[in-house]
Design brief:
This protein has one domain. It has 2 helices and no strands. Helix 1 runs antiparallel to helix 2. This is Coat F domain protein.
């Protein structure tokens, strides 16, 4: 893999942080839901965001 330049590294860190933040918020929303379908929707979206953050972290290795 080629090395990332400074701008690419900053953008990657920003994207990872954003996805982690979104995941945390969606999990929080899921925890407050009474409707199981809505809760499940938030949980699935949170899991997808976490997976994306993990995929992006792969570029740092």
């Amino acid at each position: 893999m080629s090395q990332l330049n400074q701008l690419e590294l900053q953008n990657l860190r920003h994207l990872i942080g954003s996805h982690e933040n979104i995941s945390a918020k969606l999990n929080d929303y899921a925890g407050k839901c009474q409707d199981m379908q809505v809760k499940q929707m938030f949980q699935q979206a949170a899991n997808a965001s976490t997976q994306t953050a993990q995929q992006l972290m792969g570029f740092l290795q």
